[in-house]
Amino acid sequence: MTEPLVRRMREFGTTVFATMTKLAVETGSINLGQGFPDTDGPERMLEAAAEAVRSGLNQYPPGPGLPELRQAVAEHRKQWYDLSYDPGDEILVTVGATEAISAAVLALCEPGDEVIVFEPYYDSYAAAVALAGAVRRAVTLRVDAGRFTFDPAELEAAVTPRTRAILVNSPHNPTGTVFTREELECVARVCREHDLVAITDEVYEHLAFDGVEHVPLATLPGMRERTIMISSAGKTFSVTGWKTGWVCAPAPLTGAVRTVKQFLTYTASAPWQAATAYALREEMDWVEAQRVSLQAKRDRLMAGLEEAGFEVLRPAGTYFVQTDIRPLGFTDGLDLAQRLPELAGVVAIPTQVFYDHPDRGRHFLRFAFCKRDEVIDEAVTRLRRLS
Q1: What is the pLDDT of residue 387?
Q2: Sign of CA dihedral 198, 322, 245, 13
Q3: Residue 15 scores a pLDDT above 90
Q4: What is d(CA 299, CA 384) in angstroms, rounded to the nearest whole number?
Q5: What are the tens digits of pLDDT across the range 319-328?
Q6: Is the pLDDT of residue 122 over 80?
Q7: Which of 2-16, 98-112, 326-340 has the lowest mean pLDDT?
Q8: What radius of gyration, in Å, describes the C-alpha atoms of the chain?
Q9: How many Å apart are CA 211 and CA 221, to the nearest integer?
Q10: Is the dihedral of CA 39, 279, 250, 222 positive or negative?
Q11: CA distances (Å), 18 to each of 279, 295, 323, 370, in order?
Q12: What SS3 class is residue 45?
C-alpha cells in the first residue's frame, strides 16, 4: 500500500509530548516534559462535576455549549477585561482550546492563505494550518534582556497579500513570555492596517507572575471586532483532562467557527461544562492561590536548574521554564532530551521542535514546574548529575 496519510500531514507524526511521556514511562524518569499538574483542581468544582453526572447530565448538551457556561464565560470576560460578549451568538464552547484553534483556522483559511505564528509555537498550531491547506509564516521570538520578544519589523515583513490571520499566544507556551502592551499594540496595528483576524490563545490568562499584566488583544482599540479570543478550563483550574474551552468573538466570526466545529465534535463534556460554569463564578480565589503557588514552584525549579548548571530564562507566565544547555557543554536539545533519562532520570522537551527554523532553538530545553514540590526537588537532585 502507498502512504495512506495525506501529504500535508506527513511532517507531523507523533507529537513530541507523546514521545517524551512514553520515554518517561519506559525509563521510570520524572516527567517534567508534558505540562499537566500532578494535583487536582478545586474540590468543590470536582464535586460539582460529580453531582452533574449523578443528576443525569450525561447526554448531548447543546451544540454551542450549555447556556449556563456561556453565560458564565460572558460574565468572566466582563468582570476581568470589561469585554462584553452576547452568550447567545458570540460565545462557543469547544473541546478544549486546541479544537477552538483548529476550528478557527479551518473556518477562516482557504488553501494557500497564510497564517502568521510566533516561533517557537505550540505544535498544534502548525498542524491546524496544514489541515486547512494554508501556509504558516513564522516570526521568531528571540531572547533580549532575559525574555523572549519579537522584532516589529520582522512581523511587518511577514505579511503578504495572502495573509489571513495572526495566531497570538500570551502568556506564551513554550517560552513563558507575556507580551507587553507595547508588543500587543504592534500586533494590533498590523492587524488593522492589513485587515487581518487575530486568533488569540489565552489559556494561561490567569497564570502570569511577578505582577506582570496579561492584556487581552481584544481590549485594544479596533481589535474586539477582529479577534477570536480563546481560553479554557484546563490550565486555569488544573483540570487539563476535561478539555473544556471556549471562543469569544463577534457573531460573524463565532458563527464561522461554529460551522466548522459542529462537524468536528459537535458537542461534548456536559458535566464538565456545568462544573466549569460554577468554577468561573465561585473559584477564582482558588485560581489566585494556585497562581501564587505556581510562582513559588517556578522559583524552586529555576534555582535547582541553575545549581545543575543550566542558564535559566525567567518566565513571566505559564507552566514552563526555558533553559540554555550550552553552559553544560551540550549544543543539541533534541539529543540531550533523548539522553536525559539515562543521564539524570528526568524528561524535558526539546524546544527546537517548535520552530520552523530549528537552529534558532537548538540550544533550549523546556521544563515544566506544575508539579508537587517533592517531585521538583527529586528532579533537581537528579539533574545535578549533569554538572
Answers
A1: 82
A2: positive
A3: no
A4: 17
A5: 999 999 999 9
A6: yes
A7: 2-16
A8: 20
A9: 24
A10: negative
A11: 29, 26, 21, 18
A12: helix
